[in-house]
Amino acid sequence: MKAYCIFCGSTVGHISDRTDELVNAVFDCPRCRLNYCDQCSYEEKDNGQAAVQRCLRCDSKLDKIM
């Protein structure tokens, strides 16, 4: 069973219907309990640290699952 984005239905290696871009990762929101791909979530850069994917609904930090 593969994890897929609840919004565009894509999984890693597929093209997102939302952005027409390749999906590189799928994330889980611990608060909303929904999966997002890297195209349907947003990336936030912390002051000089690694970028963090954030949930569009609740702004929580997402956990990479795939």
Placed side by side, the strands forming the largest sheet appear as: 2-1-5
Query: Given the helix and strand composition, which structural class is it?
Result: mainly beta
Radius of gyration: 11 Å
Q: What about the largest sheet? A: 3 strands, antiparallel
Assign a percent range to the helix content: under 10%
Mean pLDDT: 91
Unreliable residue runs? none
Q: What general form does the structure show? A: globular
Order of helices and strands: EEEEE
Strand content: 15-25%
What is the number of strand segments?
5
Total number of helices: 0
How far is it from the N-terminal to the C-terminal residue, by CA?
A: 11 Å
Quick structural gist:
The chain is an all-beta fold and 66 residues long. Helix content is 0%, strand content 24%.
Task: Give a structural overview.
This protein has strands at residues 26-28, 35-37, 42-45, 51-54, 63-64. With 66 residues, it is mostly beta strands. It has a three-stranded antiparallel sheet, with no helix packed on it. Strand 1 and strand 2 (35-37) form a beta hairpin. The chain is globular.
SSE map:
Blueprint: E1 26-28, E2 35-37, E3 42-45, E4 51-54, E5 63-64
Antiparallel strand pairs: 1-2, 1-5, 3-4
